[in-house]
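Annotated sample (chain length 424).
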Amino acid sequence: MVEPGYNDDVSSTVALVVDRLLEQLGESVERIQRRITADIDELRGDPRLVELLRFSVAGNVETVLTVIRYGIDLDRAEPPTAALEYARRAAQHGIPVSALIRAYRLGQQEMLERILEEIRRSVADPDLRLAVYDRISATSFAYIDWISQQVSDTYEVERERWLEHRNSIRAVRIREILANDDPIDVDAASSALGYPLRGRHLALVLWTEQSDSPGKELLRLERFTRAAAEALRLRHTPLFVAEDTVSGWAWLPIDRVRADPAGTIRRLAETTDNSVFLALGVVDSGLAGFRRSHRLARVARKVATASGAAPRVTAADDQGIAVAALLAENVDETRRWVLDTLGALASDTANDARLRETLRVFLQESGSYTTAAKKLVLHPNSVRYRVNRALERRGRPIGDDRLDVELALLACEHFRQAVLRPVG
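Output written by the structure step:
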């Protein structure tokens, strides 16, 4: 028999536990995100999708805790916006819906473990512990069933819409060509695509942010691709295909010998729509070059987006991009390694940024103060002072670990705040 007031004790204790969990929301989200990306291969890779996944996790955790805290009926709850948008992007990228549902189950498991930890810390009475956990877990399971259905429905609608949007001979054929390195009938494929695969190519990956006018993002990207072709005075029409609703792939048929096509595109980007970001491959020839230039453009985008604040243009042949792409495979581990390698020099301050740049150029110029001074437009004594100061900030001189220091400085240059220690 339940004693009078027992249910009130359970409700007040549930509220106490949930309030404490809401105070630790960021930590909970971080743990769930790590668990999901560690266990589900399909949800790793594209930095933008990983970032949106974090917002989806945060929205779901906050929503379910609010539902539990105030006893809200799920029929009156609203799915988190980021969770539905993540389902749409997953559909566009061909991520199976089963991976999304598994992510919710893993997230629930991780969250219930945190709930149990908090109950053990907050509640002494074993019976009350059990009652509180039962109430929270029951609502948690009901929420997962409810949100999984919402996400599945959103995914299926978007997948069908996206396939209709993408279901043209050109888009399907391009993805088939890129999917493997098997030989194909180049002339037949060129005819189907309306693009000369036997020529020389420069691949681009373009992306933009979601705008206030959904559906017009791809038009902006196509418009920039055409403008690039006009700036290069190409004889043939460029090739463009949507990757998802806010990004696309393009190839420019470099039919004339140009000294610096990437430089022309950089200058165009500086004077046109500042909402368009792009990554460039390298100029290469034939079918193999068509594929290789695209692969390198995707590598460049991976580096560009790893910092969370991408530059307008990143090229695959920019200094250090190939190595930076390897460091971008696991930015969290790279950050820890950078902090271990550079110490206080890896702090996110303007002064440390100047010291890092001076040290990077000094090492690049084989330890010559004079040559580094010319490149930095400084007096050699200023270079010497900054190098010494950089080593003081690092906390130890450079010895056999010179290569590590150079790579860590490269990571700071490309990934910025993603690997630097915040001020304070």
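Annotation: The chain has 17 helices and six strands.
Annotation: The mean pLDDT is 89.
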